[in-house]
Design brief:
CATH class of the largest domain in chain A: Mainly Alpha
Shape of chain A: flat
Radius of gyration of chain A: 23 Å
Strand content of chain A: under 5%
CATH class of the largest domain in chain B: Alpha Beta
Strand order of the largest sheet of chain B: 6-7-8-3-9-10
CATH topology of the largest domain in chain A: MetI-like fold
Structural class of chain A: mainly alpha
Helix content of chain A: over 70%
Radius of gyration of chain B: 18 Å
Distance between the termini of chain A: 33 Å
Structural class of chain B: alpha/beta
Oligomer: heterodimer
CATH superfamily of the largest domain in chain A: MetI-like
Order of helices and strands of chain B: EEEHEEEHHHHEHEHEEHH
Shape of chain B: globular
Strand content of chain B: 25-35%
CATH topology of the largest domain in chain B: Rossmann fold
Largest sheet of chain A: none
Amino acid sequence: MTAALQRVWGAYVRITARWPAIASVVPFIPLVVMWWAVVEAGVFPRVFLPGPADVVRSFADLVYKGILPDYLHDSMVRLAVGAFWGIALGIPLGILIGMSQLAHRALWPLLLFFQAIGDIAWLPILVIWFGYGLATMTFVIVYTVIFPVVLNTVLGVRSIPINMHRAALSLGASRLRILWEVVLPGALPNIVTGLRNGLGYGWRALIAAEIIVGTSGIGFLMFDARRAGSVVEILLGMIILGILWYIVDSWILAPIERATGQRWGLVTR
Amino acid sequence: MKSLTIRNLSKTYFDPYAGKHVIAVHDVSLEVPEGEFVSIVGPSGCGKTTILNMIAGFIPVTGGEILVGGRPVKGPGPDRGVVFQSFALFPWRTVLDNVAFGPKMRGIGRTEREKIAREYLGLAKLTEAAGRYPNELSGGMQQRVGVVRALANEPDVLLMDEPFASVDAQTRMTLQEELTRIWQEKRPTVIFITHDVGEAVFLANRVVVLSKGRKLQEIGVDLPRPRSWDALNESDAFKALTSRVLQLVRAA
């Protein structure tokens, strides 16, 4: 019995080593089977809890009508724009605060104060200022992304051993070059962690914003489906959220982490 | 390579916890001619690393002056190469790029600086490791990289702060022998900080014994070169010198 299990496990390890995509799909199989079983057992009425097949049908339908591709596109563009500004502002700010005692004293309390005002708490006033548009959404995402990026960048900059700076200075590096040659790469593993957290929060904040102020996007799709009483579309929206984040994380963020901090031995695998 | 002059050097810290000034280095003078290898030896807390940090320009002096080739030291600079106990290699750069870092900062082009780096890597028998990252190397190999990274920048003075303290005993002996060989080949001016009396004598032309921030004594070492542990372990002159230095350090 154990021997047979070991053989199956061995085969699984070999197969997933060859096709890693399989390893990310297999854990979902029991979940979907359970979902299907609960639905088929008829514990809940179909309208309250549709089955996997219904969701797939709804997916095909929305793709066919062109709604889903449009909404997906809108959500992804908003995330990308927000992420861009969050990174473009967050990393320099984090480096400044990490390197300058003065900047740290001046900005740290402000940072903690504004971090406490959650992203969605800004929505009422943003709607009055900017209306229901990209500006509002972008603000919310940038706001959400920027704090983890700044805080982790500060941590990264401060955790670079002083001897790294000293070594670079003794090898003739100017202060400016140290920024590029020591501070940035030294803080990079933390910056990537910050990005990973920030984008994860940003993604959730975006959906919340779309539900509240949206006129398109995956969040809006779910909100609209609730109005129409279509549980199947709500479920579809939730599943898409999970899959999209999985793709962003495992295709973009995780490889960056592997190529930098892990390669350099700065973070444990 | 240039000479190093230290005149009446002192360093006082303010200890905010004790609420008083602490004297770390007091009135130390030292003359190191061009191409000489000087070891500074003493127990922990005797101020030897503080002296090195002042020569490197990492911390300001309280009193006295430091001259390299006649020019006063103002902050860190490429004229003084430093080898750290913690190696301080850049983990995000390959071995080759670590060694080429100094020449790169001097504005030397890629082909030329990689040629320089390869030459120095060859000197420390590291040619094979050129493309690897520091975390993929053993401690002994990392410190070999640390030594040639400093040398490849052709500093006037090489400052070494207990560089072999964190490698195992066998590797340490090999590194010490390699260092004497490289020193003979390149003849840099070296200040070598250690608490290991045998190491201090083995490497140096002169040993300075330090105690409680003061210079106790200078002892000349005229053992023949090239030096090897196999030969010196049998040498009465080496034994006499180490026991003399050891007595000074223990009495300190």
